[in-house]
Write a structure and sequence with these properties.
two-stranded antiparallel sheet, DNA polymerase, domain 1, metal-binding, phosphoglycolate phosphatase activity, PGPase_prok, HAD-like_hydrolase_sf, binds 2-phosphoglycolic acid, Phosphoglycolate phosphatase, binds magnesium ion, alpha/beta
Length: 224
């Protein structure tokens, strides 16, 4: 569906998991490693996909509940998960088609770029580095950078401030209702990709300014 972005843009904020990189394989491997160490049953990749995007605490709590593990195991599970994720980060992850092209188009349009994810900052920076995407971003903020995570608007407001760009002139590009809700509340225009993880729900039902099947489709929206 064609759509137009109203305001002249000065900056763009991009989500990471499900938007820039398909990280389901990394999450799946790290969680199953954690579950095996806790002697709990394994989880399917499909179930994991529904839990991505709301940060690590939500991912671990949802995974434990899904396999019938007691909530008291949260802290030991979290510790094992961090060790496991640190050692797989990027190994089973793939940059989505059109990402390099889309980022280059945003840069050519003179926009300052930040990556804002609910993933812990350490993992986000390592992943962007491993996939060759780090040089595109002036700033990278993880889920541990601010007091609250998306869908709260605080991380977007803070990122706009750090970029020196008003929210109305800062495009949020994400894959989930979380990104869209945060953008709406912060006053940023928001475009969602149709290929990511939207908590297991159809992404087109989310209130957003537009949808793209590839970041390469952002290029024509930036002209003029
Ligand atoms: O939930 C996470 O860890 C990451 O999610 P995000 O990159 O889509 O914000
Ligand atoms: Mg995401």
């Amino acid at each position: 569906m064609p759509f137009a972005l109203q305001a002249p843009l000065r900056a763009a904020i991009l989500d990471l998991d499900g938007t820039l990189v398909d990280t389901l394989g990394d999450f799946h491997a790290a969680l199953n490693h954690m579950l095996a160490e806790l002697r709990l049953p394994a989880i399917s990749a499909e179930a994991v996909a529904g839990f991505i995007g709301k940060g690590t605490g939500h991912l671990i709590r949802s995974t434990l509940a899904h396999v019938g593990g007691p909530p008291e195991l949260f802290q030991p599970a979290l510790d094992r998960y961090f060790d496991a994720y640190r050692s797989v980060n990027g190994r089973y992850a793939k940059v989505y088609p059109g990402v390099e092209e889309g980022l280059a188009a945003l840069q050519r349009a003179g926009l300052r770029l930040a990556c804002l994810t609910n993933k812990p900052g350490e993992f986000a920076r390592g992943l962007l580095q491993a996939k060759g995407l780090a040089p595109a971003f002036e700033l990278v903020f993880g889920g541990d950078a601010f007091e609250r995570k998306k869908p709260d608007p605080l991380p977007l407001r803070k990122t706009c401030e750090a970029l020196g760009s008003a929210p109305g002139a800062t495009l949020m590009v994400g894959d989930s209702a979380n990104d869209a809700a945060a953008a709406r509340a912060a006053g940023c225009p928001v475009v969602l990709v149709t290929y990511g993880y939207n908590h297991g729900e159809p992404v087109r039902k989310v209130d957003a300014d537009g949808f793209v099947a590839s970041l390469a489709q952002l290029a024509p929206l930036l002209r003029g």
